[in-house]
Amino acid sequence: MRIKTCLLTATAIACFSSPALAAPGDPIVIEEGWTLDLQANTRLRYETVSQDNAAGDADALTLRGRLGAELAHMGFKVLVEGEGTAALIDDYNDTQPGNGVEPFSVVADPENMELNRIQVSYSDEGFTGTLGRQRVIMGNARFVGNVGWRQNEQTFDAARLQVGTGPFKADAVWAISQRTIFGVDSPNEYFDGNFVFLNAGVDLDVVDVTAFSYIVDYDTRDAFSSQTFGATASAAVPLGAASLDLSATYATQADAGSNPVDYSADFISLTVGTTIAGFNLSANYEELGSDDGVAAFQTPMATLHAFQGWADLFLTTPATGVRDYNVGLRKQFSLPGVGNVTAAVIYHDFDSDFGGIDYGSEWDASLGFKVGPVGLLLKYANYDANAFAVDTEKFWLQAEYSF
């Protein structure tokens, strides 16, 4: 604990107080044609969780640090990056079974020290290939992402090929291991298997269309093995001085590999947005369908925190599915002495897809701005269970700096 804390504190001090050591985006020239890009990130976050159950209120102050170096030569790059998290206040359930009874609500940021990424890549015009432990974000991360909200990032041991020419784009990933957010001391540190992610689309003047396929075949996590096929279309329709932003996604999912349940379920997402007087308004309907209550559409590799409420009550889809009706209001404005500030308020109403169950509702709000090079974020979530789960209230205060 003490060693981890000292290392991470040193990283934080270096990042927050010494940005002049390496200007952002300015790699070091070793010799002609060779560069070395030193990268660092530190994030200090205070998180509280209060739930209407027997678990005690959680208080977590965690410090996450990343240090990396990328050597580049003639389109080739080699990146090595370490990541660690220390708990400065640890009155929370960190999900680690070896830590005994922790009578608090969950904050899924365990203490951890690991090799986050180690990869080799090559890029040429319209082409990038990457091999090794890497960050993978497909589309908007609804099905495959890096779970960037948590302190320990999700990565994959994978081979990736990305190509693009004119309006056409394609992205193909074959992975053999999902390196989760739960850390090296957890039995859920990683899940091996055979995973294939495919995106291909065309970006036209009128509409952007992407077809996708996600094949998830776990070695041991059989209940989450699945095959998903679908497509997304988005368009911006002129509306006077503004525009109407439209997006629609449909997908179908069935069991795959050794999944013991024979099921089929649909995914639907419909979004309408516009900007009026500087306010961004959005309305969304998202459905993770159920096969008559037997099993539901699952997204075990997604960046789940970004969807269905920040309180994270639906990280695993209930067998009866989820229907999420949500509206959001966002605004950017300037404050003297602070600069640009981004504020957001979102309301969710949740129902089941099967069985007519009222899952409750949730209010989310956030405020983000910068003080010099340091990004600050205040964030709040309040879930009203309506007898489905438990009332949950969460608050975050976060500071982050990168170079």
TrEMBL record:
Name of the protein: Alginate export domain-containing protein
Leader sequence residues: 1-22
Annotated keywords: Signal
Organism, scientific name: Alteraurantiacibacter aquimixticola
Keyword Signal: yes
Annotated ranges, domain Alginate export: 36-175
InterPro entries given in the database record: Alginate_export_dom, Porin_dom_sf
Family matches, as Gene3D superfamilies: Porin
Highest taxon of source: Bacteria
One Pfam match: Alginate_exp
